[in-house]
């Protein structure tokens, strides 16, 4: 595992964006696995800036996102498809037919997951998967206790995750979904390279447990210790408790 410890959120974002842009330059038709949450916003802003300068071209890039709330589509500001359009897809020359997410509007979980699993299988392994970390060490929406051998599936969100994201829904005045469709751990581990971006003191426990604690389903991200190409880009605050026990 490579670890880059940066001064702050801005530096963390630039470093992670650098790694993604290197991937695009080396393989213009690469498959990028993308993530949502507050952490990647600075990364996407940086990629957009380099695109606007003419240094990056997304015309052949294919993207696959990790997850989507069950029940939400693009019309909801809290859906991940809305987030991705706002922060990246509509700001660069990605072709819309090359961007993929689980479809939260499909009410039948089995059907939604089969469709996204099928699509991922037909595309093949992502070249680079970007991940954030939940405060409880979750990746995608694979909550503590998740089975490592799962592909795309429907999950019940835990109280911790509901609490962390509730504020966005309150602001919009809509109830928060309690379930999501997510790539499973097995789907995530198929990526050739994994890039984990983390920032802020409230992630310090997660960083410690995920990267330096025992590999256990209680800390879903800890499985990343067994992947052979993981890069962690973290700021000092998120890395402040990262010592081997
Ligand atoms: C959600 C997403 C994850 C993300 C996590 C952390 O649960 N499903 O993919 O990593 O939030 O989000 P944030 O970056 O806002 O802390």
SSE blueprint and pairings:
Elements: E1 2-6, H1 9-26, E2 31-34, H2 41-53, E3 62-65, E4 67-69, H3 80-87, E5 99-100, H4 109-123, E6 128-131, E7 153-156, H5 159-172, E8 179-182, H6 185-189, E9 193-198, H7 204-212, E10 230-235
Parallel strand pairs: 1-10, 2-3, 2-6, 3-5, 6-9, 9-10
Antiparallel strand pairs: 4-8, 7-8
Helix pairs in contact: 1-2
Mean pLDDT: 95
The number of domains is 1
Our measurement of the CA-to-CA distance between the termini, rounded to an integer number of angstroms, reads: 17 Å
- The CATH level-2 architecture is identified as 3-Layer(aba) Sandwich
Summing up helix and strand content along with how strands pair, one would put the structural category as alpha/beta
Distinct compounds present: 2-amino-2-deoxy-6-O-phosphono-alpha-D-glucopyranose
Number of distinct beta strands: 10
Order of helices and strands: EHEHEEHEHEEHEHEHE
Can you tell me the overall shape? globular
Number of helices: 7
Proportion in β-strands: 15-25%
> What spatial order of strands do you see in the largest sheet?
1-10-9-6-2-3-5
Q: What does this 3D model show about the protein?
A:
With 245 residues, the chain is of the alpha/beta class. The chain has one domain: Rossmann fold (3-Layer(aba) Sandwich). 33% of the residues lie in helices and 17% in strands. The chain has 7 helices and 10 strands. The chain has helices at 9-26, 41-53, 80-87, 109-123, 159-172, 185-189, 204-212; strands at residues 2-6, 31-34, 62-65, 67-69, 99-100, 128-131, 153-156, 179-182, 193-198, 230-235. The strands form 2 sheets. A 7-stranded parallel β-sheet has the order 1-10-9-6-2-3-5, covered by helices on one side. A 3-stranded antiparallel β-sheet has the order 4-8-7, covered by helices on one side. Strand 2, helix 2 and strand 3 (62-65) form a beta-alpha-beta unit. Helix 1 (9-26) crosses helix 2. The mean pLDDT is 95. Bound molecules: 2-amino-2-deoxy-6-O-phosphono-alpha-D-glucopyranose (GLP).
